[in-house]
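# step 3/5: fold
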Amino acid sequence: MYFTRDLSPEGVQKIYQQINQGITGKVGIKLHTGEPHGPNLLPIEYIKNLQSKIPHSNIVESNVLYKSPRRETKTHRETIKINGFDFCPVDILDEDGDVMLPMPAVQAFLDKQLDNYSGNCPFERGIHLHEIAVGKHVQKYDSLLVYTHFKGHTSGGFGGSLKNIGIGMASGKVGKRMIHGEGWSRGKGFLERMVESGDATVEHFKGHITYINVLKNISVDCDCAGANGAKPTCDDIGIIGSTDILAADQACIDLIYQMPADQRHDIVERIESRFGLHQLEYMEALGMGSREYNLIEI
């Protein structure tokens, strides 16, 4: 696990150089391009500088389910241009439909828990996923860099690397509906489906996926809030990089909880009011990584 306080294009590059061993072939850079004119988006220079140094790479995104210009590919591309992410090709993964990614490890885990039910389950009863619909263009890529603006989220409590792929890789019309269900439910069941979806992407790119979380502009709102995103009340912290998705998100949570009380109050309230820490608990239960890590500052 690597950490730098150097919030700059050079800082992002330093982190990537420590965690890019498995990034080969055609590379997708998964990031959240956001709603139009979002005030808290990360500086374009951070990712523009990095993308230019990764051979055979481009940005990948998926359409959304909620009412937004990003719901349809044509107007999604217009938003991408408005927000400045058109400096390189952007592949809307579900532009030409979906493909189902299986998650056999999740199914085996759930089956084992139910077969040995003793009164306590590490998950909520209800609808769980055994596969997830993602854009069929995912099949064009050999590796995935998950580049994440770490901040709050209205349903997940926080949006880290897991949310970036768990929701962000799911196709707009099918996959995201599988996760959200009807009525835009919140709570642990939603979080667990988000984790299950993320696990499918992790397994699909196994050995060829890595994670960068940027702790800057740490609003309680996701970049999907657009121009109405809340002003951050927590100071900027730095950049985390890891090949372990759980460790990456856990380290960011730990850094936020170590901030002074007046700074962490709003973001912690958002995380805890949405049961956001359950993301970490369920990732651990599924064996997606480790909540223990050795933080190396560079």
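# step 4/5: annotate
The chain is about 35% helix and 15% strand.
# step 5/5: archive (pending)
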